[in-house]
Amino acid sequence: MQQALFTLILAESKGIEHTLYPFSVMHSSWELRYGGRRSFEVFRDGLPEFSLSFIGRDLQKRAFQEQEVNKQGDLTTPTSPIMILRADIAPTSQILTILRRMAIDGAQSFIIRDKELIIGAYLMNEQEIAHLDLFAPTFEEVIAFFPIESLPVTDIESARMMHQWDAMMMAPKGIAESFSYFSKHLKEPLPGHVFALNVDNIAIGKQCEFAAGIVLDASKGPIIIESDVMIMAQSFVQGPCHIGKGSMLKAGAQLYAGTVLGPHCKIGGEVEQSIFHGFANKQHQGFIGHSYCGEWVNLGAMTTTSDLKNTYGTIDVTLRRKHIHTELQFLGALIGDHSKTAIGTCLKTGTIIGISSSIHDIGVFPPKEIPSFAWGTSAEMSKKGEQYDLQKALQVADLVMNRRGKSMSPAQQEIFKKEFQLLSE
Fold first, then answer.
1. Which of 68, 85, 174, 299 matches a 20 to 30 Å C-alpha distance to 382?
2. 275-332: per-residue pLDDT in tens?
3. CA–CA distance, 332 with 51 (Å, rounded to integer)
4. 307-325 in b/e burial notation, b at 16+ Cβ within 10 A?
């Protein structure tokens, strides 16, 4: 492994717990997927000269570190020079190239700015680093007392993933940019009985299973299939698409361009430009479009999202009771970790569902804003106090995770309790 020459610190921006809701309840912003990999993984893989450290909300950072096999993020002895960057900056190939060039060619410290927004800093000596509050939870607080005016400014162009729909919209670009990385590691041959278009644009990992009648169409973008994936008969996959390790496509599944499956997902029916973050189930028929589903989500048979208004107008959402105009014409649902829908559930355009909710509405559309720990039908959810019992929610979450060889970490349990208490206030 190459020895790190620099430290890259990814720091969460102020207010990310609201703008990135519901993902932000259980996760840090550097865990959002850019293409098939989480954002920090793209930085890690693309910048081997850097060691990675993290600054963010305490519980979410602890939950992240408890789940990671390789513990990362020790800021007690950062390797100087350091580069601190907003964690919501999308790790595009262009940004990785710029950051590497900045660090290797950098002869002095400087501030990194995109238009009028400070997005980072490159600091070469201990005296400058000492002005940073490395124990603060946000980028803004870290640099609050730094004499910014004392350093020159370098202007760059960047893209930010401030909302989950930003990651969803960037998924095709992220998948395409990651193909050169994955094609070096996933080199298994495509079985002869699989019908493929543009086979050179397909990367396949080890120990995958392909049934009869599968079509892989990589004519408009790459298809990345990680190891231990099972694709059942008559499935159709259109690139750009990323299928994570250990995932399964049920018979007749249809994955259209821009779809990302994280590890160990089970997917059936029709999916278009949506992200299933990992360990999520949608095993039956139904359409999910332009959506982002968190971990441990289970969608019942025929669960369907609307991702386009009848007026063809842009879509508004409500995040933590704040109204936001997305300026998007296509947006399905954002679903928090551990939430579930019953059979036949239909979700409106721009539906937001918090963590650990259980939606039972059949034949009618539930509300567009569904809080965490919601339980039952729309009528039941409208009644004060009609919530999922906290202890039962924790028990079910742990039971579901145990089936996949996982368990809730102490920090994740604390997040559940804190989110439940927040709703009770």
1. 299
2. 999 999 999 999 999 999 999 999 999 999 999 999 999 999 999 989 999 999 999 9
3. 37
4. bbbeeeeebbbebbeeebe
In the block, tokens 């145990």 appear at 402
**Nearest to 407, CA basis, from 419, 417, 399, 416:** 399
Give bridge partners of residue 422 from the DSSP assignment: none
Find residue 195's DSSP bridge partners: 215
Task: Give the three-class secondary structure for 275.
Answer: strand
Structural tokens at position 81: 């020079």
Q: Which two tokens stand for residue 276?
A: 């299933």
Q: Is the dihedral of CA 85, 88, 91, 92 positive or negative?
A: negative
Rounded to 10 degrees, the C-alpha dihedral 111/115/116/122 comes to -10
Chain segment 174-188, per-residue pLDDT in tens: 999 999 999 999 999
The b/e string for 190-228 (b: 16+ C-beta within 10 A; e otherwise) is beeebebeeeebbbbbeebebbeebebbbeebbbbbbbb
Tell me how far the alpha carbon of residue 20 is from its chain's centroid. Answer: 10
The contacts of residue 379 (CB under 8 Å, 6+ apart) are none
pLDDT in tens, 99-145: 999 988 877 999 999 999 999 999 998 889 999 999 999 999 999 99
Residue whose token pair is 């995040």: 319
d(CA 80, CA 153): 19
Backbone φ, ψ for residue 236 (5° rounding): -125, 130
Cα–Cα distance, 413 to 213 (Å, whole number): 44
- Whole-angstrom distance, CA of residue 422 vs CA of residue 178: 39
Phi, psi at residue 89, to the nearest 5°? -70, 125
Do 326 and 26 meet the contact criterion of CB atoms below 8 Å apart?
no
d(CA 39, CA 27): 12
Considering only CA atoms, which of 290, 298, 173, 160 is closest in space to residue 242? 173
Count Cβ atoms within 10 A of the Cβ of residue 278 and give its class: 0-12 exposed, 13-18 middle, 19 or more buried. buried
Q: Please, are residues 49 and 5 in contact by the beta-carbon 8 Å criterion?
A: yes
